[in-house]
Amino acid sequence: MSTSPPSFPDLAGKVVVVTGASRGIGEAVALGFAAAGARLVLASRKAEGGLTAVAGKIQSQGGEAVAVACHTGRMADVEALAARAKEAFGGVDVLVNNAATNPHYGPLLAAAEGQWDKTFEVNVKGYAHTIRACLPLMKERGGGAVVNVASVAGLVPHSGLGVYGVSKAAVIMLTRTLAMELARENVRVNAIAPGLIETRFSEALWATPEMRERALRSIPQRRIGQPEDLVGAVLYLASDAARFTTGAVLVIDGGQTLGGAY
Ligand SMILES: NC(=O)c1ccc[n+]([C@@H]2O[C@H](COP(=O)([O-])OP(=O)(O)OC[C@H]3O[C@@H](n4cnc5c(N)ncnc54)[C@H](OP(=O)(O)O)[C@@H]3O)[C@@H](O)[C@H]2O)c1
User: Which residue, 28, 75, 130, 149, has most beta carbons within 10 Å?
Assistant: First the structure.
């Protein structure tokens, strides 16, 4: 399987903010944009460690990247993130809202208030506030593109992932609402809804052979997705190739949510 991202020449030189870029899907997406010639503003809660390593990888390949410590659930942090993008590269063209959390596995009604708050603070308010912080910089440049990382858990109920699923359903409505509200500003807002992707985040769903086998049975393509499987879709939605697409939710799940019968 080739992992080289498709080419979107208009992304060269664009300033792209990726949250949750220290590992997993955010890292793969950041490396994909860098390979397309974009300049990267990378965010996660800690700058040292993974985030700095991803920035270093991009720089060692001749690309441009800055690593910014930013808790996306905190308004002051995301405002500082946007300010850093302005300082480093003069503005923002693309925002990939990717950082999310899931502090509660189990029945929806068993979640504690703090778990609800944490989930919505990062997964929903965090996405909205990061868009709000980057929007003036996109407007200064005549427009931009937002790609929100949602989940198939926001489309169909997943046992044990109820609170997270409700937050991802909110991301989908956030995407559709802002697509409508920001269209006149020439800012497109789209989402991807990945199925099971092999990262630390989803480890509880594939870590043992039994769990992996159970997961594979639910995926018609018979494999668990890799972060690189999402890169082409994110670059496409951010690029001029998708210039007439806004408010779309692209499902990328190996057929998991097709609902087919065997
Ligand atoms: N893996 C899957 O099966 C799957 C499926 C569908 C959707 N998704 C979605 O894909 C996105 C990325 O998930 P992943 O699987 O790549 O997870 P991951 O490997 O655990 O990476 C999560 C990233 O988010 C950062 N992060 C977490 N909380 C943050 C916060 N409050 N502020 C800033 N950064 C934060 C982490 O860095 P720090 O710890 O340094 O902050 C890390 O860079 C999420 O939106 C997730 O919901 C994943």
Answer: 130
pLDDT at 64 > cutoff 90 = yes
Token pair of 45 as six digits: 């809660």
Domains of the chain, earliest start first: 9-251 (3.40.50.720)
- Quick one: tokens of 47? 């700058």
**Which pLDDT tens digit goes with each residue over 114-158?**
999 999 999 999 999 999 999 999 999 999 999 999 999 999 999
Give the C-alpha separation, 222 to 95, whole Å: 32
The two tokens of residue 114 are 């703090």
- The two tokens of residue 105 are 């596995």
**In sequence order, what are the residues at sequence separation of 6 or more whose Cβ sits closer than 8 angstroms to the Cβ of residue 249?**
150, 155, 172, 175, 176, 190, 191, 192, 193
Kindly tell me if the per-residue pLDDT of 2 is higher than 80.
no
Residue 14 neighbours by CB under 8 Å, 6+ apart: 33, 38, 39, 93, 94, 238
From the CB of 151, is ligand 1 less than 6 Å away? yes
Percent of the chain with pLDDT over 70: 97
Distance (Å, rounded) from C-alpha 238 to C-alpha 150? 15
105 has catalytic annotation: no
> Which of 127, 164, 236, 262 does the annotation list as catalytic?
164
* Angstrom distance (rounded) from CA 248 to CA 176: 7
* DSSP 8-class letter at 20: S
Pocket of ligand 1 contains residue 72 by CB under 6 Å: yes
* Binding site membership of 44 for ligand 1 (Cβ less than 6 Å): yes
Query: Which numbered atom of ligand 1 lies nearest the CA of 227?
Result: 16
Alpha-helical (H) ranges within the chain are 24-35, 50-60, 75-89, 113-120, 126-140, 162-182, 209-217, 231-238
